[in-house]
Design a protein that fits this description.
The structure is a homodimer of 328-residue chains. Chain A is an alpha/beta fold and 328 residues long. Chain A is built from 13 helices and twelve strands. Chain A folds into three domains: 52 residues, lambda repressor-like DNA-binding domains (434 Repressor (Amino-terminal Domain)), CATH 1.10.260; 127 residues, 3-Layer(aba) Sandwich (Rossmann fold), CATH 3.40.50; 130 residues, Rossmann fold, CATH 3.40.50.2300. Chain A has a six-stranded parallel beta sheet with strand order 2-1-3-4-5-11, sandwiched between helices. At the A-B interface, helix 4, helix 5, strand 2, helix 6 and helix 11 of A face helix 4, helix 5, strand 2, helix 6 and helix 11 of B. Chain A binds a DNA duplex (30 and 30 nucleotides) through helix 2 and helix 4. Chains A, B: This is LacI family transcriptional regulator.
Chain lengths: 328, 328
DNA sequence: CAATGATATGGAATCGATTTCATTTTAGTT
DNA sequence: AACTAAAATGAAATCGATTCCATATCATTG
């Protein structure tokens, strides 16, 4: 591998001049510039970016922490982030935390050892106080989810508004007995969404029964189980606000198998607007989250911060959109 | 940020000794070892890995080139790769090529500039000759797809066997008029799969009509269109082997809407075994690809190569599995 | 007791770039 | 022609580690 030294020698000039040519600095005569260029060409020289990073103390790599990539929400989020990163020639490192506290810290340590320039949390299990101490090593920001008390830039979706909007839609369709499913995990997003639901109910003089709240709702299988749990109730909800399209799909599939009409006997509202939602028959009404938008915004901001911007404790909140199909 | 120099000064020892402690080298007395340890502790010192990389000329980061992350096949593949990378404390960099030749080369240049230690191609648009020249800068291997003539390690799925197996299944179900859909792109995988189909037909004294080959089949929408194309034919296939579950889903959905019975009037075989395949009613028969397995194997091999293994021109081929549901 | 090998430690070179500072050359002004 | 500012160039320091080589101490052995 040719080094800057080799180029300098071949060109009969100093390393300084070669460096100036590489970095397009002024005060190099056109003649020498050409000499250097051809020497670089001849040797197939490219600057060693590790050496550059060490010298300039910059690191144009961003780590993104997500629970797992096979979750479509996160793969779409990272997809959008990578587009922006590539645009600025930044590198994007994938870190799957598997929702583990220790894994998160493991990846944060990469910030400490200067392996990466900044960290975007797309989900987080640790408390803010434990993450905070890493801020001194580089910019940290949150996209989508964030721990309570976060003192760092946050770009997220207005889950409260999403919960409110979805619930209001069900109420407008004439439902007064509305059920709710959620994963059972407690994070800001899930909490806010539930707050939105309760707020909408309250604003319309309604409330939710304890029996109508279903936990551990992650996938289609859970949806199937929840269908039976609903049917087993004496006082049943006539509509369910599920936390995900998968769960909605599970409920709808089981309902069909058992001859329960959707939405007449049971209305089902999904969340996410994943491809399946539009393809099912009946199509699943759902709440669309502008994932790509927050992904792009987060990466844009991160790049600015790494390039020397000042981290402002700013909160950006994007609205969710209701997509009405046939299931409600 | 504390440097090794600071630690040495505080401990009253040389940088050499501190380095020896960091790297667990012998010939350091237990006493000094403790002195160094506590100095490191006191200063909150961690070695700068950029400096380490420069000095040791090692780079424990791997770039994975995929068309796009929102394609579930690739997000699952990368998921598996990241698990292994994390295990060895390697970094995984995501590179979405958007199936663009130039983008591929852009990322390959990162190998040249030493930003990354090795590259895994999960798909590739460039010819082998154009990729070959980058081998001198670090290990390159192919996982899933590869250009003809590749002289690098390949880990892939036996698409020929997959095509054969799927076709044989349809023949066993009594079909003699079998249609085929594919993306229209030409890569080794798609070609091999088609070869498998033709081979199975030939072995049973059958053949395919030009009219029964449908191109530009990427998603559900295309599936819908293809359904009508099939129905418009005078001499119709009674079964279709689609290149993806999405396309199969599109055909099935449109068939149902038009009262065409699946599988009686038209049998549909998918590919990939994506979650929807099992959830649909009727469930989609499909060909399952052990994606996680090739992902893990590829990353294991890459790490060995980066650690100084000898790249052998080896080809690892994993079999596909048939999953029979209700659509065939 | 001298010779030898194992253990411990540090000085200085090195990895491959950028940048400061000093020096020389050129161009412009009076 | 003399003077000054701008342009061009290079020597050497620097980023933060590792490692080669030299040297010093210690224990062991014949």
């Amino acid at each position: 591998m040719a080094t800057i030294e080799d180029v300098a020698r071949l060109a009969g000039l100093s390393r300084t001049t070669v460096s100036r040519v590489i970095n397009n600095h002024p005060y190099v005569s056109e003649e020498k510039r050409q000499t250097v260029r051809s020497a670089m060409e001849q040797l197939g020289y490219v600057p060693n970016s590790i050496a550059q990073r060490l010298r300039t103390q910059t690191n144009e790599t961003v780590a993104v922490l997500i629970p797992r990539l096979s979750n479509p929400f996160f793969s779409h989020l990272v997809d959008a982030m990578e587009d922006i990163a590539a645009l600025y020639r930044f590198q994007l490192i994938i870190c799957q935390t598997k929702s583990g506290k220790e894994r998160e810290i493991l990846y944060l340590d990469w910030l400490k050892t200067r392996q990466i320039g900044g960290v975007i949390f797309a989900s987080s299990e640790n408390d803010w106080q434990d993450i905070k101490r890493y801020q001194q090593y580089g910019p940290i920001l949150f996209c989508n989810e964030y721990p309570p008390g976060t003192e760092a830039p946050i770009i997220h979706l207005d889950q409260l508004q999403g919960g409110y909007m979805g619930t209001q839609h069900l109420i407008e369709r004439g439902h007064t007995k509305i059920g709710y499913c959620y994963s059972g995990r407690q994070n800001t997003n899930i909490r806010d969404r539930f707050k939105g639901l309760k707020l909408a109910l309250k604003d319309h003089g309604l409330s939710i029964k304890e029996d109508w709240i279903f936990k551990d709702a992650y996938d289609t299988k859970d949806g199937g189980r929840i269908y039976y749990e609903i049917m087993a109730l004496k006082d049943r909800p006539t509509a369910v606000f599920t936390g995900s399209d998968e769960v909605a799909l599970g409920i709808i599939a089981e309902a069909r198998r058992n001859g329960t009409h959707v939405p007449k006997e049971l209305a089902v509202l999904g969340f996410d607007d994943q491809p399946i939602a539009g393809l099912m028959d009946p199509g699943i009404s759902t709440v669309y989250q502008p994932v790509k938008d927050i992904g792009k915004m987060a990466m844009e901001l991160m790049i600015q911060l790494i390039r020397g911007g000042h981290p402002v404790q700013q909160i950006t909140e994007l609205p969710l959109h209701l997509i009405v199909r046939a299931s409600t």
